Amino acid sequence: ILNGEDVTAEVAWLYDKPAVGTMVGEVFTPTGSVGGLGTLQALLGNATGYTTVAVSVRRTVNSAGLSAQDQALFDNPSGVDSALVLVYPYDQTVLPLRVLSPEFQWNGGSPGDVYRLRLSSSYMQYTEYFAAPSSHIVPQLDWENIELSGAGPVTDPLGVEFSRKSGSQAYAPVSIQLRIAQGFLYGSVYYWQLPDACGGSPEGKIVRIAPSSETTEEFFSYDSGGPQGGCWGCHSVSRDGRKMAAGFYDASANPVLYTLDLSATPVTWGSLNPSNQAGFVAYGDGGFSLTAVT
Question: Is the dihedral of CA 276, 280, 284, 287 positive or negative?
Fold first, then answer.
């Protein structure tokens, strides 16, 4: 109200967390997928006002097809589960954004058991009922919504309650805490893939995988120039992730030191002249020197 008149329709509204909700005119609408606390800004002429808008989300996924009666058993457990041990993820693990949903793993279940996984933070509660022998992965989209529902550089604790129902008896949950760092993990993991038919040899090749990917990438073909028909294994990546040195094996199984330019697209051979045989190499801290075992 300004000078006795309703000026709501003239106000420009800005909400700083579009994943949580948006303003359409003067109406705030939650997305329904992500929870959180955001700042709402109202602008009219030279005047500006601020307030906060919080959205809490509760989502239940009943993959096991449990009845409401069976679900209620988890809320009234009959005792401590001395057999169930949650082995991954670890208590107090900090997970970054934009990585694959963690695979919850445990020991102590029996065939036919049903489980409840409950993940809770200040603005999100995710509950899933499922039947699995020893591991379970929260659907990726649900996990990403859970990640985005925190606040601050490291979110409020994400409580994990994992409980089991065996027959008609539900046990008290095993509990740990996780945290979600509100930052992205960049880079790739390089590793030697075995076994693999590489140039007629079973010795393998190096592949890489990004933290957000379910599939590996064969980022370089050994036969793209250089020695032909061999394989490569022992390797070192520079600290900045832009260079790789590796022992490439020719048809006579002799390791030859080569470098790769990982910053190029596609990846190309590096500038180091392969004048020596080498089985193991390592970069110095600055990425400008190499130590090789010949």
Answer: positive
Residue 45 per-residue DSSP state: T
- The type of residue at 65 is G
Direct distance between the N- and C-terminal alpha carbons of the chain, in angstroms, rounded to an integer: 81
Assess whether pLDDT exceeds 60 at residue 238.
yes
Q: Single out the residue of 227, 114, 211 nearest to residue 164, CA to CA.
A: 114
- Give 46's contacts (C-beta < 8 A, 6+ positions apart): none
Q: What pTM was computed for the model?
A: 0.79
Cβ atoms of 243 and 261 closer than 8 Å? yes
Helix (H, G, I), strand (E, B) or coil at 232: strand
Asked if 291 and 281 touch (Cβ cutoff 8 Å), the reply is yes
Q: Which amino acid is at 257?
A: L
136-174 per-position pLDDT tens digit: 999 999 999 999 997 766 677 999 999 999 999 999 999
Please return the burial class of 286, using the count of CB atoms within 10 Å of its CB with bins 0-12, 13-18 and 19+. Answer: exposed
Instruction: Decide: 37 and 52 in contact? Cβ < 8 Å.
Output: yes
3-state secondary structure of 8: helix
Q: Which of 224, 233, 169, 225 is nearest to 205 (CA)?
A: 233
Per DSSP, helices labelled H in the chain are 68-73, 140-147
